[in-house]
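Pair request: fold both.
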Amino acid sequence: MINVVFGVDGYVSQLAVSMISMFESNKNNKIQVYIICLNLNARDQAALDEIAQRYECQIKYLSFDASKLKNLKAFFHLTHATFYRLFIADLIPEIDKVIYLDCDLIVEADIAELWGVDVTGCGNAGVIFNGKDTEQRLGVPGGKDMNAGILLMNLEFWRDNNISDKCIDWLEKTESAYMDNDAMNVILHGAQKGIEERWNLNPIHFKKYAEESEHPSRILHFAGAIKPWHKAYDFSFQRKYEQYLALTPWIDGYKPEEPWNISQAISVANQYYENGEFVQACGYYNLAIKYRVAETKLESAELMNVINQGLELQSKGDCEGAAQIFRQVMLFWGFPTAHMCNVYQFPQISQS
């Protein structure tokens, strides 16, 4: 039996996608799913249970004293659910090993391979990246940074060494950018085991979507503020996300979240332009201009004339010509006009 733990605080449809992708890729494995939750309503729980039963699996729901989180701060786009993994060893004391998974991922691998990794003498196994600032920020020699989104956790080690209490104590005394991720890298320094990067692949690091095929067995982890349920994310990965979402009740009425700033609008427009969908491209370039004008005055009357030329072409149905003019405006403002998987190459794309 493979024990898999998720933590959720509002990301229920995303959890369903992560869970169903895992089931689809692991039909020959027996999996016990645990979900840590504080405020899961009966309707959502019933929908998750139905998905699990489809694959002859059961879910055990874990709750805990929320007051344990009162002194912990969550930053950026993260919620307090990021801290749930720190309590797993105490929540299921009868279990000695689990795979922990975030809810913003797609599993397309046989997780029995991950489950089989030897974690004797280690607290966690996960993908280790060379964090340029990790040593300076945290004082961790070598600057090694294990991403906590996908972990094989040795719960026996956690209990024997009071890792949960040590992480909480560190967090209460330290204002840290990456919160529990940082805490584990500090407290478990020297007791973490690196595994292959395919177990925690962030698509933003691909230069193009085709690179995904280089990793046929993988977990795609959409870490960062922009996700595949946002319109600004790479369209190819949006389609992959929706492929699994279609197997859940949450597909009904689903629409990706529209851009909320100029960078996101340009990211969407660029993709439509490269796909030859010029009407849609113009619409999102128009939105980008709207956001820009709302933030600051246009630089000159000449620039306004250029924009008006584009709008005139658009009104006459020459959306390709209009889009080309709008793209020149975007370049003038310093924004990329070539689409890249890494949306974070756009300045301030996650800014609210």
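--- second member of the pair ---
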Amino acid sequence: MKKRWTMMLLVLLLAGCGGQEGQPRRTSEVGEPTPLPTPVIPLKPVYTVEQGDVSTQISFSGRIAAVVEAPLIASMSGTVAQPLVSAGEPIAAGEPIALMDTSYFQEQLSLAQSELDIASARLLAAADQSAGDQRRAEIALSIAELNLSHAQEAAGDNPNPEQAYQIQLLSYQRELAQLDLDELSVAVDPLLQAAVDQAALAVAEWETQIQRAIITAPIDGTVSALSLSQGRAVEEGELLGIVSDTSQMEVSSDITSDLMRQLAEGMSAQISLSGGPGELLSGAVRQLPYPYGAGSSQGDADGTARIQFDDPAQAAGFTPGDRVMVTVLVDQRQDVLWLPRSAVRVFGGRYFAVIQDGEGQRRVDVELGIEGDGRVEIVSGLAQGQQVVGP
């Protein structure tokens, strides 16, 4: 009896486990398990080798600037006393732009002028004294000559001993008077003249310093940039602003050396206003800085690339400082084979493509040319119309 109860309890436990909620077996309407979906293998893109044009272009930003720009360089260290113009104003060559503080120079000039006046007065007094002494010596010589002549006439051809003595004495007096006059004929003390010259040189130097304190426009044009304010301290050689001849304008662009190496003077370019659709204007690279082109190595107007307008009249629609975009055609190949860049694969520095060959595929090495606008030139390895399987 006990064994029968044990068997019944085991059956009930098994039935309970088989009917737990949340563990049903999924079946189809016909009672079969639902099959899992077969994963879809994505198809690889297929490209066709085509023939056409491939061009390489680079784009960079720039600003409208005058063809001729002259920097305003501080010729001395000091403090700005008074700016005379503002940025944007027209100006003529030589016209003052600002005045530097010259109070110290004025004081030194006043002292130098005083020293010059004193030295000049001393020289003048010495010259007057010398002139008086010379005149007195001339008169003394004339008197000595007159006395000697009188004694000789009075003695006649046969003077007595007393007359001969007087004639000899008067001859010596005449000779002494001549020596006195000769000594006074020498110029005024050269030290006095040297003091005057030195004082005059000091005056001229301080006057030059005061003149240098006037910052003037180097050329006719417009003050396109100016960094001056009253009381501002500046250092000699510091760039204070730029004067531009706005009658002729072009694009100035400060680009990286990597881009500079790709450019060459004379390359075609397109210019458009930044931030808007705008009209595309044609131009060309006019000048690159040394060592990339014929420009200056001193960084005048430039360490920048200069792009000119083919038609200078088109620049009239811009104002100096306008930001523009420049696109330069670096290289172009016409009627060449090309593929999208993504169709060409690379491994270990080797370029290759996978071509569809009937039902199968095979790899072929390819030689590439220039690249641009998503296209890459196929120099060798493929033929027009071949199907290339992308990665």
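Observation on the second member. The chain has five helices and 19 strands.
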